[in-house]
Write a structure and sequence with these properties.
With 150 residues, the protein is of the alpha+beta class. It contains three helices and nine strands; from the N terminus they run E-E-H-E-H-E-E-H-E-E-E-E. The strands form three sheets. A four-stranded mixed beta sheet has the order 4-9-8-6. Strands 2-1-3 form a three-stranded antiparallel beta sheet, covered by helices on one side.
Length: 150
């Protein structure tokens, strides 16, 4: 019997998947517990619509991420930090500070976890960073650290 899973079932599959299971397993376990619905024409149509909707949303997110990557790629983000002698910073510049400066520069609100710094930034200078916007879509930016005006 073909069923569409309504929840993750260990040993059978994940929610929303179509599976061929034995009649007894379906009638005695999956259907009474609400873990699956029989794969009739209405349920199959709903499944196809749900998959098409998911694919459409993924395509929209990917296009938005690509647009954002095209706009921020190659930009130079300036971060001002308190520094001592020889340009050595008190503390370090974090990805949160880079994300805040990037938001001021471009207007895109990018999560600090998506910014990958090549190394710790503890001195003034220019550094490379990657912004991971979506699976397979990244943008390269430069981070310029300057001394805070006194």
């Amino acid at each position: 019997m073909k069923v569409i899973l309504s929840a993750d079932v260990k040993g059978t599959g994940k929610k929303g998947e179509l599976h061929e299971v034995s009649d007894g397993y379906a009638r005695n376990f999956l259907l009474p517990k609400g873990l699956a619905v029989e794969a009739n024409s209405q349920a199959m149509n709903e499944l196809r619509n749900r998959e098409a909707s998911t694919a459409h949303h993924i395509a929209e997110e990917k296009a938005a991420a690509q647009k954002c990557a095209d706009e921020i790629s190659g930009k130079t983000v300036t971060v001002k930090a308190k520094a001592g002698s020889a340009g050595r910073l008190f503390g370090a510049v974090t990805s949160k500070e880079v994300a805040d400066s990037l938001k001021k520069l471009t207007g895109y609100d990018i999560d600090k976890k998506k910014i990958v710094l090549a190394s710790d930034i503890k001195t003034c200078g220019t550094y490379d960073a990657q912004v991971k916007l979506y699976k397979g879509i990244t943008a390269a930016i430069k981070v310029m650290v300057t001394e805070l005006d006194k």
